[in-house]
Amino acid sequence: MAAVLAASALVLTACNGGGNPPGGDPSASGSVSASASATPSPTPTASAAYKPADAKGKAENVPVPVLPEAAKAETKEGLEAFAKYWYEALSYAYETGDTTTWSAMTSTNCAFCTRIRQGLESAYAKGRWVAGGKMSTPSVAGIFKPETPSQQVKIQSIQDQIDYYDADGSVGQPPTPSSNTASVMIAVFESGSWKVSDLGLIR
Fold first, then answer.
1. What's the whole-number mean pLDDT along residues 7-28?
2. Is residue 77 domain-resident?
3. What's the half-sphere exposure (Cβ side, CA atoms, 13 Å) at 92?
4. Does position 23 have pLDDT exceeding 80, yes or no?
5. 38 in helix, strand or coil?
6. pLDDT, the chain, mean
7. If you average pLDDT over residues 6-16, what whole number do you get?
8. Which runs of E-coded beta strand occur in the chain?
9. What's the confidence (pLDDT) of residue 201?
10. pLDDT per residue over 33-71, tens digit each?
11. CA–CA separation, 43 vs 66, rounded Å?
């Protein structure tokens, strides 16, 4: 598991109401009655605050990535928007251990992607968790050729250091250092949506 997550880091690095109290002339009963019967405005409910994982526990209330409308188009812009979203979903998986959304956009034929998923599942098994691993993509450049069945995207991905914890909060293994890596994504557009078929390191 350590080897898989470390490798993935190299390649991938390659969310008071109420009216004022009545006042004035007490004999002005109509005015007092109107104020007293006014309906208070509802108080907005504050959303739960995001808390990243640390040595004390797993991340909480991690914002769920939303697929942008642009990523649904079979165009260069759509390809690039999809690639960014794919990494956002992977970053979410690192923070939460939930690979559902990311896996749905990733072909089982992508051997390296399969190893990433297996590594994450192991890292979060039996109460374990990781802290860090958050990802960003400062540079995404699609190479779109309409006449070809698959498309390429060159991506610079940055990933924060990953720390590993066992269920009791103890350190599970040495951390994986942060990385800044270039990679190539191969994606295909099938049944109205993009899907990653392969991923590799640019050397």
1. 40
2. yes
3. 20
4. no
5. coil
6. 84
7. 42
8. 129-132, 135-143, 150-159, 162-165, 171-176, 179-190, 193-201
9. 86
10. 444 444 455 454 457 899 999 999 999 999 999 999 999
11. 27
Please count the structural domains in the chain.
1
At 203 the pLDDT is 78
The one-character DSSP state at 57 is B
Residue 200's DSSP bridge partners are 184
Six-digit token string for 105: 């956009």
Sheet arrangement for strand 171-176: 129-132, 162-165, 171-176
The answer to the question of residue 144 being in a domain is: yes
Q: Could you tell me if residue 115 is left (phi over 0), alpha (psi between -120 and 50 degrees) or otherwise beta?
A: alpha
Asked which of 6-15, 103-112, 162-171 is least confident by mean pLDDT, the reply is: 6-15
42 part of a folded domain: no
Q: Are β-strands 193-201 and 179-190 bridged in parallel, bridged antiparallel, or unpaired? A: antiparallel
What residues form DSSP beta bridges with 183? Answer: 155, 201
Cα–Cα separations (whole angstroms), residue 147 to 74, 96, 143, 144, 151: 12, 38, 12, 9, 10
CATH classification at residue 163: 3.10.450.50
Look at residue 123 and tell me if it is in a domain.
yes
Domain of residue 9: give its range.
2-13+67-201
